[in-house]
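hey can u check if this looks right to u? its 153 residues, i copy pasted from the old doc so theres a chance i mangled smth
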Amino acid sequence: MNFIILVLGFLFGAILQYAKLNRYNVISGMATLENYAVAKAIATAIGVGAVLIAIFVHRLEKSKDLKWLYSEIGLAILNVIVFLSVGTNRVIGASTAYPYVADLFTGTADNNYFPKITDSGKWEVLFLAGAFLSGIIISMLRKEFKITVVHTN
């Protein structure tokens, strides 16, 4: 097992060396936001790895439905559009929406944290509202919308 770990480490180092990602100017360029080679390599590795895992799981599942793949592509494109400065220059998320709304509803917005999350909190609340409306409108158009009472005995 130790030998396998050593070989994997060797391959990792060889890949870094091949792309010159282990150079001082590349690493310091990333820190000063002048060279994005490391970020691109990491993002690509995560993305390709996720796609390969998804394809592997899909094959295990033996399903012919490819909606997951189309959704993955759509979400990736949406994420790029949202993240780019020509879009909104934000990441897709909702982490500050909850404390933002909670502070507003409870009247406790007079704290040190609230001013820091105001812009992102507003954006995320609107983003989540859009997602909620999408769920309602699309399910109504498909005639899948229904209100049910869920109870347990």
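The mean pLDDT is 84.
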